[in-house]
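Re: the request from the purification team.
They wanted to know what the chain is likely to look like in 3D before they choose a buffer screen. I agreed to run a prediction and write the result into the notebook, where they can find it.
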Amino acid sequence: MFDIADEFGATNTVLVDAGVPDSKGTANLLRQVKAVAETAPLRLLIVTHGHLDHVGGLAELQSAFPEMGIIMHSNEAPYLVGPRKQQAKYSSVPSDNAAYTIVRSFLQKLLPQPEADPARTFLLSGDSGDVADARANVTAAQPAWLPPRGVLSFLRVPGHSPGQVALLHKPSGTLVSADVVMYGRGLAHLDADKLLELPFERLFPSHDDGTGVVPGALRKLVASFKQ
């Protein structure tokens, strides 16, 4: 989660991804978000990509926070937005690793893909830009709230999913890298090179615990995959 002040100085919450498809995990996520939202309203959920382990609690979040907007890249929207029967299937997208191919096949048979509400979904476009430039998916209305320009930027890193994005919180130098890097497992996808071009101070992979990764450590990990 990011705490972001608006032009009036009020603090707002931006949540990145919606957790794994697990009832206990979703309940815990909701408790934490509700506690934070008591003092800093949850304005946005930014989906780095629509794989089930990143949108497991989407339906519950949409229900619990009716004013929450949803942001994702336009290349990810066909797999997540609108009625499930009309969604594209991730099984048609080439996988970037064998392990994920197996997991994806298992999860798709076991669990339904969530449905992001088109009326509250706003899309990023292009290979990079400012989250403040998100535009409406199906209506002329714009989000009720967006981060001030220059605070939160995105970089499309599509190696793992067509519209996967990494997010850079510029005031803190915090980079959320989605599934580009799994540092604790010593894994880095091809898009990791792109992350090194960003002015971050600490990187937080989606599936790693701990205190994050500094640029020098990421540089060494990326170099090891080129040897």
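For the purification team: The chain has a mean pLDDT of 88.
Please add any questions underneath this entry.
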